[in-house]
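Annotators were shown the component list below and the corresponding predicted structure, then asked to write short factual statements about the assembly.
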Amino acid sequence: MPSTFGNALRVTVFGQSHSQAVGCVVEGLPSGHVVDTEALGRFMARRAPGQGPWTTPRKEADLPRIVSGLNPGGATCGAPLAVVIENTNTRSRDYDNLMAVPRPGHADYTAWAKWHGNQDVPGGGHFSGRLTAPLCAAGGIALQILAGHGVRVGAHLLSVADVRDEPLCALDNAPASRARLESQLDALADGRTFPTIDAAAGKAMLAAIDDARRELDSVGGVVECVATGMPAGVGSPMFDGIENLIARAAFGVPAVKGVEFGRGFEAARLRGSEDNDPYRMVDGAVTPVTNNAGGALGGITTGAPVLFRMALKPTSSISRPQESVDLTSGSDATLEVHGRHDPCVATRAVPVAEAICALALLDALLSFPPEPQA
Amino acid sequence: MPSTFGNALRVTVFGQSHSQAVGCVVEGLPSGHVVDTEALGRFMARRAPGQGPWTTPRKEADLPRIVSGLNPGGATCGAPLAVVIENTNTRSRDYDNLMAVPRPGHADYTAWAKWHGNQDVPGGGHFSGRLTAPLCAAGGIALQILAGHGVRVGAHLLSVADVRDEPLCALDNAPASRARLESQLDALADGRTFPTIDAAAGKAMLAAIDDARRELDSVGGVVECVATGMPAGVGSPMFDGIENLIARAAFGVPAVKGVEFGRGFEAARLRGSEDNDPYRMVDGAVTPVTNNAGGALGGITTGAPVLFRMALKPTSSISRPQESVDLTSGSDATLEVHGRHDPCVATRAVPVAEAICALALLDALLSFPPEPQA
Amino acid sequence: MPSTFGNALRVTVFGQSHSQAVGCVVEGLPSGHVVDTEALGRFMARRAPGQGPWTTPRKEADLPRIVSGLNPGGATCGAPLAVVIENTNTRSRDYDNLMAVPRPGHADYTAWAKWHGNQDVPGGGHFSGRLTAPLCAAGGIALQILAGHGVRVGAHLLSVADVRDEPLCALDNAPASRARLESQLDALADGRTFPTIDAAAGKAMLAAIDDARRELDSVGGVVECVATGMPAGVGSPMFDGIENLIARAAFGVPAVKGVEFGRGFEAARLRGSEDNDPYRMVDGAVTPVTNNAGGALGGITTGAPVLFRMALKPTSSISRPQESVDLTSGSDATLEVHGRHDPCVATRAVPVAEAICALALLDALLSFPPEPQA
Amino acid sequence: MPSTFGNALRVTVFGQSHSQAVGCVVEGLPSGHVVDTEALGRFMARRAPGQGPWTTPRKEADLPRIVSGLNPGGATCGAPLAVVIENTNTRSRDYDNLMAVPRPGHADYTAWAKWHGNQDVPGGGHFSGRLTAPLCAAGGIALQILAGHGVRVGAHLLSVADVRDEPLCALDNAPASRARLESQLDALADGRTFPTIDAAAGKAMLAAIDDARRELDSVGGVVECVATGMPAGVGSPMFDGIENLIARAAFGVPAVKGVEFGRGFEAARLRGSEDNDPYRMVDGAVTPVTNNAGGALGGITTGAPVLFRMALKPTSSISRPQESVDLTSGSDATLEVHGRHDPCVATRAVPVAEAICALALLDALLSFPPEPQA
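Structure shown to annotators:
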C-alpha cells in the first residue's frame, strides 16, 4: 500500500499539506513502553519549520496527539498507536495558480496525470514535506524503544551543494573508531542548531543555502545516518533485508533520489581485497574489522554500525520564473511559485532519516530477529 | 516476506545454490499472454555462467521449466505461474571449509548469526547469485508483457573499477535524445558479447576484470538501466512509488550497495533551477524537457524514461588468503576460498537489472495505474 | 496486520473503548467521490448506542471527523482517508475490578495472557464493540461508492435466541424473487426502528432481549446480509475469494462465531443435484437460476446476489455473578460486571455486517475485477 | 494475493489440475526442523485419490519433492521451502465439452467471466481439488513442527448428508473430557480407513455416499477439526485472530461454504450465562471450565482446544444431465459431465482441514505469540 510500510511493525501515514490534520497509525509496537512525550516533542522540533533562516517561515506547533494505543499508565498496550497532528497554519490561497500550472520538479503534474484533477493540490497534498511530521512522530517512538535495546541512531548533513561535512566515523569498526563515532553522535544529539559534525562546514552550508535563497533558488544535500548497537543476525535475505527496508522507507521521503550503504557507489570502484571486511575475534565476539558493508551482508546485520546515506535533490519549489504548461488550456506557460518553502529540504531531512532508520530497524528486530537457538 | 516482492504482481523466489532446484512463483500476471519461450531462453542466457573469461566456469543449462500458470495454448491463464530450474552442476565439496570459516564480504557469517548453523552453506545457499536465474525467468516474462504495452527496458555496464562506459542518453528528454537512446537500446539488445555502449570501454573493462582475476581478486561495477514508453501517472506516493519498488527489488540482487534515480547523488550538488525539469507541450502532450528526475516525481511516472543505476561491490569470494574466524573454535583463522566465482558480478547483473526493472514496472502498471477518468 | 484488512482497498482501525479517540485510515479509495456526510451520519447512527431499550445506555455523538483524504471540494483525492471519532463519554471507573478478574467470554483474559498486564483494560480496550464505529465510517463510504457502481447492500436480524425473521429472498435468483428482495431492502433501508423484515418477528426479538436483560443475562443472534448488483467475474481463487475476504472481515467483528454463504451449513446435507445452481440465458446474460452458492463460485462472483450470514454469540458482559479467577492472586473469584452493555450485540451488528460487506466487495472490485478483454 | 496466505509463515500454492505440476512455496518456517518425509507421505496419502469406493478412480503417486529449503542434513534452513508434485495422470480429453458449457456449482463459469477464455479449463484448472495436495504437503510439515511444540491437530467427518458422527469431545474442557478427546485423536490417527469416531456412523456415511454415486449424484458433509496444546495468548485482535486466519484458509478449500468455531451458529440461540466459559484455577493455571468459545476469545487463544467445523457442499461435478448454457453460442444447453469425481469431497477434506489448521496455527505462533515478559 502506497502510504504504509513495514512488516511486524507497520506504519500508515495520512494527511495532506492543507487537510485538517496529518498523522499516522503504528501497528505492532511492543507493549509496555511508556512514551516519553517530552523527548518526542524535542525530537519532532528538530524537523519543525520556522527554526532559522534556512527553513520555511511556516510555523506550526506540530504537537502530536497520541489518540490511541496507550494504556491508562501511558504505556503502549498492544493496540495500534495513532497520532494526530492538526494542521493549524495553512494558506491555501498561495497555491491557487498551481491548480493549473504544475511546478517543475514537484509531483503536481504526476498527481494530475494519475487522478485527473481530483488530487488535493494545495501545498502539494499528500506529497508535501509536511507528511514527514507524522513519520517523525512514529520514528521518535521507535527511537525510544530501540534505545531500550541499546540501539542508537543519529544523522547529520554530510553535504549541501559542494560543501562537505566530516563523515561519521562508521566505515572503520576498530574500538577507537567506535569511540569517535559515539562522541560524534553525542555532539549531534547535543542540540546544536545546525546538524553537522564540523561547525565550520555547517556555517559554510548555511551560507550556501542563504545564497540560493537570495537568488530565489534552492540547493540539494546528502544526509548520512548511522545506527549503533544492532546485534548481528537481524534481517533477512533478498527483498526484506536491512537495505531493502531502509531504502523503501528512504525513498518515501520527498526529494530523495539516491540511497547507498557503507561504501555505497564507491564500492563499485574497489577491489574485493579492499572492500571485504575481514573478521577477527574481539572480546570473544566475531567482529568485522572494518565496515565497508555498512553493517549488513545479505540483508542481515553484521553487528557493525548500520550506515547509509541518502541524496536529496534541491527543493523543487523555487521563486524564480520557470517554464511549465497550463493543464487547463494545454499550452505552454510561465510559473512563479509563491508560498513558503525551504531553500534546502536536506536540512530538515536529518531527523527524518533518523526516523525512517529507526522504524526500519525496529521492524527488522521484530520481524526478522535471529532465530531462537534450539 | 523476505523472498517475495510486489503488490498486484507478486514474485516469490525459492532455492539455494546447491538445492535440487531454484525457481519462482509469479502471481498476478495478466491472462492471455503467450509466453515466447525461445525469447525467454535468450534473455536468460545473458546472465548464465560460463560465457566468457569474465564469468565463473560453472556451466548450467538454466532451462526454465514453466510447470504451471499456462493454459493448453501456452498462454498465461490467471493462475500462479511457477518456474522450476534444476540445479544440475553443483560441487558442494568446494565449500566444506566454509562451514566453519565465513568469507569476508559474504553472508556466511550473518546467516550463521541468524540461523545458528541450520543455514544451507554450500554455494552461499539462498544468498547465492544463482537465485538471480529465477528472477530473470520472471523478469523475462514481464519484459514480454511490457513490450506489448510499448514499454522497453535495457541496461548496460556503466562502469567497472575506474573504466566508464558512455551513459545512456536518458537525462535529456529532447526528441533527438530519445532517438539516440533508442539506438543505444537497439545496440545493447543486438546480442554483442559485452554489455557496453562503447566497445572500447567494454574492452577496457574486460582487461580490468582479467587483471583482478589474475591477481586472485575481484572488482565492482555500476549497472545503468532505463525503461522507455511508460505512460505518465503510473505509481503512487510515499512507500510504493516507482523508486521504492525498484529500489526494494534492486537491493535484493546480491552485492548491490547503492541505487539512484535520474541525476541521483549528483542532484545533491545542484540548484533547483538546474535540477527541475521544465514542462513544455510537445505534440499536444505535457512533456518534461529534461529528465533529471529519472522519470518519476512523487513516486509517479512523468512519461520520460525511467532511469536508475545500481552499484555492485566487487565479488566477495576471492581466492587470496583473507583474515576470518573459525566459528566452531571461536578463534582467528585464515581463509582461502576455492570454488568458482565471477571476478565481477556486475557483468551478469546487467540482465538482472532489466529483470527487476520489468517486474517493478509491471507491478506498478497493474497495482497503481492512472485512475480511470470519470 | 491485526487491525488492517484489504488489498487494493485497505482499512486500518485504531482506538480503544476509552482511548482519546477511535478511528480508521482507508487507503486505496477511488478518487473523485464526494462523500455524502449526512448519509454517512445516518448510516452510523444505526449502530450508535443509546437508541432504545435493547442497547447500552452509553450515548455518544459518534460524529466521524474526516481529517484527511478529501480535496477542497470534499471529494476523495487519492490520499489515505482518515476518520477520527472522539471518545467523549467514558467511565473507566466501572472497569476497575476487571483489571484483576477477567470476564468469562470476553478477551480480558486472553489479552492478559498476551500482553501480561500492559493491555488497555477499560471497556475492553481494542476488543470493544466501540471499534465497530470506525468500521462503519469506512464501510459507510464504501457503500456510497458501491452505490455508484449499482451495488446495494442490506442486512437484517435473521434470528435472536429462538425467534426467527423471514429470510432475505436471495437463494432464488428468479426475476420475481429479485423484485421481492429489492422490496425487502427498501423496507430495511426505510429507517424502521428494529432491523427485521417481519415486524412481528422484530417485536418478539425485542421481548426476548428484554427478558434477558431483566434476568441480568444476554442473548445471541444471527445477522443475514446481501449485496445485489455485483457483476460476474469479480474475485479470485483460493485465499482472496469473495468468501475469504468477507469471512476474514466478519470474524473481526466482536462476538462473531460463524460465517456461512448461500445455503451454508445446510448445503452439507444436500445432494449435488439439489445444491448446484443451473444456468440459463436470461436477457442475453448467463444467469444462475437459483443462488444456493450465495453469489460466488471458486471465490468469484456469479452475478447473483452475494449472501452471507454471521452468528453472534450472546454479549459476554452480563450482570449476574460469574465464576472467574483473580489474576493477581492466582485464586478463584466471583465476578460481578458493572458498566453498560447491550444485552444483544447482534442488533447493532446489522449495519456492521453491511459495512464489512461493502468494504470486502469494494476491495474485491478494485483488487480482483474481471480482467480487461483483449 | 489470491493463492497466498499467512503472515510470518506464508504459503503460496501453484498449479492446475492438468498443468505439469502442482506445488507450493512455504516461507518463514523455523530453521532446524528435520522433515520426516515418511510421515509426510503417510499424511498426504490420506487425501490421495483412489483409496476406496468413495473417491475418484484417478490414481496419483502424489509424491512431494522438496526441491529447496533444506540443508544437506535434511533440516529446514531458513530459505523458502518449495514442494513440487508432478501431475502424472491427467486425462484432459474428458473435459473437452466443458470448454463451452460450464458445470453448475463449479467455477467454470466464474473463471470464464473473469478471464474471458484464457483460464485453464481442464480439470477445473487452479480451482481443482487437486490443489489441496500441495496444501497438505505444506500442512504436513507444519503439523510436524507443531508436534514439537506440543500441539496436536486432528479432524473427522462430523456428518455426511444426514448421517452424523459422534462429535469431538472439545466443548467441555474438564480433565476427563480432555482425556476422552486425546483418545479420540489417537483413534483417528490410527489409520482406520474412514475418518469417523463412531465406526457405525462411518459405515452409514459410506452407504449414503454410495447411494449418491449410484444415482449419478453427490452429497455434502461437515468436517470437524481440533487442535490441542496451543498455549494461551497466541493470536491477535480484529482481522488476524485465530478465527480470521483459520477461516481465510478454510474458505480456500474448494466446496467450503461455512465455518464456525466452538458452539458456532448454535451460540446465537444461547444466553450469555450458558455460553460464557467460566474460569477456574486448575493446577495453578487459569483454565476455562468449558470451551464454548472454541479456544479463542478476541482472536487470541484461551489455552483450551481450538475447535472449528467447516461445511462442504456436495461435489458439483455430477454425472446426471444438468441445465447449463453454451458460452460460445450464448444459448441454453444440457450438460453431461464425464471425468472422474468424488461423490463426496468432504471425505478427502478431513486431512485438508488438519493441514490448513496447522498452517494457520503455526503462522499465529510465529506471527502473534504472547509477548516476551519484561
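Statements collected:
1. The longest strand of chain B covers residues 152-160.
2. The domain at 4-367 of chain B is CATH 3.60.150.10 (Chorismate synthase, AroC fold).
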